[in-house]
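Second opinion, please. Pick holes in both lines of this record:
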Amino acid sequence: MTQMHNSLASAEACMNCPLKSRAICRAINAGAAAAGRQGARVRKLPQDWVMRDAGEAPKLTGILRRGYLRTERILEDGRRCIVDLAVPSDVVGTLLDGTGNCTISAATDIEICAFDPKILRSMMERDPALRLEILRAAAQQHARQLELVWRRGALNSRERIIAFVVMAAEIMPGEPMPDGSLVVSIPISRRDWADVTNTTVETICRTLGQLAEADVLHSVSPARYRINDLAALSELAGLDPDLDKIAHCRGTSEGPYGMTSHALQTHTLHMSTASRMGSGVLSARSRLPGAGQGAARQ
């Protein structure tokens, strides 16, 4: 009876799922039913739940349905470094991650459509289209991780903080407003935000205050921010608002399993520095207090 209740609950969750990857869950359920095994099931897990300890195998494999997972490692000097954020529709767990020297844990409360990785591997061997969609998903996640790495090395602390807000507009909940502004929710903690951008909570607070003074971004409630001009915000971070979309690899077509398709090549379009963008960046930056200061990391 309990198994039947769980199956019905999972089926209802799949029907109401907004993710493009829900078709993969249906394919997995069909494969599991054919093999007489349990299909995908929704697991709700709390913030800070550890999915994988460093050097061990993940506890679950599935598709992230809600919330965010952080991949982190401790540096030699004892500081924590978040090297990746998994977002809704990402494939997580044994299939792509295996074991590694990083810990994966929940940055927020999460929901995962969990399934047996053996079933998916078996289906991938028989179905080239499904295999291609999974590889595309892996390439998308890898490209986003490379974007975070690039920003750590190429931008100063203030630019990294602003660039993360721009990235949040792509991968986190947003609400367009009638006046053309955008209200973005950033549900991860300020400490996680600081560790993603290799800076400090104090520097984030100071930068947000400067953006508010420049009338570019305002905090409307805890973890919710109104962006008055996303293009200007991109310029302040040294990003090209038209080309810097590799963080989420948004495509224009869909494969047979419903996941967004995109070019597998990851051109470095995001390396649009102030010299390429001309006076627009300098004009936008001049509105910030302390403009022109060095790029020292804080």
